[in-house]
Amino acid sequence: MRTISYATVVGAVKKLCIQAACNLPPDVIQSLEYAVIKEQSPSAKIILDQCIKNAQIASSEPLPICQDTGFAVFFVSLGSEIFIKGGQITDAINEGVCCGYKDAYLRKSIVSDPLFERKNTQDNSPAITHINIVSGDKLSITLLPKGGGSENLSALRMFKPSDEKSSIIDFVATTVVNGGGNPCPPVIVGVGIGGTADKASCIAKEALLRPAGTPNPHPGYAELENEILQKINSSGVGPQGLGGTVSALAVHIEYFPCHIASLPVAVNLNCHAARKATIVL
Amino acid sequence: MLTMTTPLSAEAVLSLRAGTQILLNGTVFTARDAAHKRLVNAIESSQKLPVDLRDQVLYYTGPTPAPPGKVIGSAGPTTSSRMDSFTPKLIETTGLRGMIGKGNRSKEVVEAIKQFGAVYFAATGGAGALLSKCIVTAEVICYEDLGPEAIYRLEFKDFPLTVAIDCMGNNLYENTLV
Fold first, then answer.
1. What is the model's pLDDT at position A245?
2. Nearest Cα residue to B120 out of B76, B74, B154, B88
3. B132 found inside a domain
4. Which of A64, A149, A178 is nearest residue B73 as measured by Cβ atoms?
5. How far is B174 from chain A (nearest CA, A)?
6. Mind listing the pLDDT tens digit for each residue in B82-105?
7. The domain boundary residue, chosen from A146, A163, A188
8. ∠A64-A44-B164 over CA atoms, to 5°?
């Protein structure tokens, strides 16, 4: 057994919150730089340049990349040989979020009750934490701070197993195109195919963590990613929905076995400020 | 690039066309959903508004808290459609001239923009750090209890914007193929 203290986890999560809010990952910056070259509209190129310059200013100031510093969503791989001493891992993650969001002047955007009071919790807690138990003695924590604008464009449809592949392409592309400027395009499109309704939604979000533009290793899904991307980018939505040829930076599909009667497809979008950060303890 | 300074007269807005990129200077007021609701409630109950919006511009933003030594935190635009149900009333009754946000507006908002000669600007969403550098002063003027949703008076210096919906009703968001 390897012991990691509760305080170590709190400190690591606090650091992750600040790192993710102010530093756009290199793969996303690279993808934006490629988008400037590909974009045909001169005014859209100016907007893409602003996105890149914004990332530079955010990391050097430091300031949050976007004022919506998001819902803190964590994907945790917890080695089965690890013992967290002094408390529960989910409590440590929540405490790390409170410290990070307060100390780094990040915006607190979480309300305690979704329908009646909608009272701000004042510390951006609670986080959403997905824990996967794996073999070994490592603890890997990945944070995906998720803004409201892009999350609000999420979609789920339960297809029939006999439905054509083209209907899935249409569903995903239409979800993105109908969102127009609201999810802050050019977006990264996460697609979850298979599993159950909840599993499809979860892997659609996990798909956003893949380095931008890396294809699925399965050639069939990689081709599908490409077909969806072409369709979205021929829509004319463009950066910020103001017209152009780059509406999405990438489409990432994740898949999972599913029931003989089902074919769930979930879509989860990330804005061009596609923040993420990982720490391994 | 074209430079403009607030307040914006009817004549100044008349020549702006959808797709034009400008740099905005001068005083701008912030307001999100909660502040809009209060403003419209005040109008409907015939109370005096805490701010005179004639020929002024509203910016839909909820900035991050200002770190020590900075005027404001990250301050990009939020989704404008959440303000759609309040906007026509504000344009009609206060003489509000311009709005800054991101994303498309409702038919009713576009109609009010046309009828009263207003304009809707898009700022780059997700570029809050860059945009904060174009804000030289920020002070809360009312609804302080709303925190990031309070109404702030901001002073813009070369704040980059795109005319998204002009006073003729031309709309950049309506040119996409589904």
1. 97
2. B88
3. yes
4. A64
5. 9
6. 999 999 999 999 999 999 999 999
7. A146
8. 85
